[in-house]
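hiii, so i know i said id send this last week but things got crazy w the move. better late than never?? heres the sequnce for the chain we talked about at the cafe, plus the structure i predicted for it. fair warning i was half asleep when i ran it
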Amino acid sequence: MSAARRFSSKTFAALSVRNFRLYFIGQLISVSGTWMQSVAQGWLVLQLTGSSVDLGFAVALQYVPMLLLGSYGGLVADRHEKRRILYFTQISAGLLALVLGLMVTTHHVSVNVVYVLALLLGIVNLFDNPARQAFVQEMVGHDLITNAVSLNSVLMNAGRLIGPGIAAGFIAIVGTAVCFYANSVSYLAVLLALILMRRSEFLPMKTVEREKGQLRLGLHYVAANPVLRNVILAVAVVGTFAYNFTVTLPLLTRHTFHQTSAAGYGILMAAMGLGAIFGGLFIAHRSRPTPRLLAILTLGFGFFMTLTSFSPSITWAEIALVPTGAFSLAFVATANATLQLNSSQQMRGRVMSLFAIAFLGTTPIGAPLIGVIVAATNARIGLEVGSGVALLTGLWLLLSLHRDERNTEQLQTA
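okay and structure toks below
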């Protein structure tokens, strides 16, 4: 077998599983629509208000339910069949996108309408995210979970590469409403994929019976495991301050580089998505994630995000966002796989809900905070705050790893 074929077979191993292959294709279409809506919604808020604070608030509202009730969403995923939950969430998200498109078309849209629909989408994602994360292992099994998680992350960012570019064109030619309609229709691809899956090929996953104290038990489980605890903390800190690109990049485009159309913003998002695909493929090719790899990826993410903030022109920002996207995706995929590989079946939904809280649920804190910082300074400072936090987190992970290794050596020699 040639080196290229060996690389391909190892990198795309999870796609040999029919159910995961269907899921992958459906998600690729749906995620492209989701990114179209994300770009269009950010641009719509800026058109309605022109305020970075309002933009940050609109982004934050999508994640408030995750922040407040994320563990409950994970518990529901542990108790019930994952595919059945996904049927409900995909239909609901598609209807919400359709409503937003109709409100824009009929000229009844306002920033308050965007706020309400963003909050409702957040409630849907409260149940969708942990169910979708846990559903991956049900399709591919333990041995392929790292590869599947990485490929899943690749498709999320392939959508980021495809969606913003299409959205920018639609916004420039026909307006934002078409992006919301397209996103609504894209959910049909996921529903079709779920219908076509073969139930007999799912790997049996244990569910938990309803009883008191299950949420508290999940928190204790993570707190008692150093690997899980450190990953969750790192993702929470970096997620709060660094992953606010839906706030910083439109403002960088509009106010720093003085681009009056959505095309510049779409290209920035596409550049980051292109890099993220490379980062995801790199992690997919690796057999297992390690704490040291996670620390190095965090440092790389912070470094290239810093370069983005100092870019003298939008062209240089596009170039810097390619490696920024690669390291950002590799960081998230490595953290995700580490949690799944180090948690039990009965706890996985709750562990992944804590991951979702750390990564997505912190947005209601981070997005308005970065919005306020940008309003008081500029978009470059908003990016620099996030990059500085990522660099400090990477150093903390390395120091924690060194301390754990030293303690292990002392125990072995005692």
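btw The chain has one domain: 13-198+213-413. thought thatd interest u
miss u guys!!
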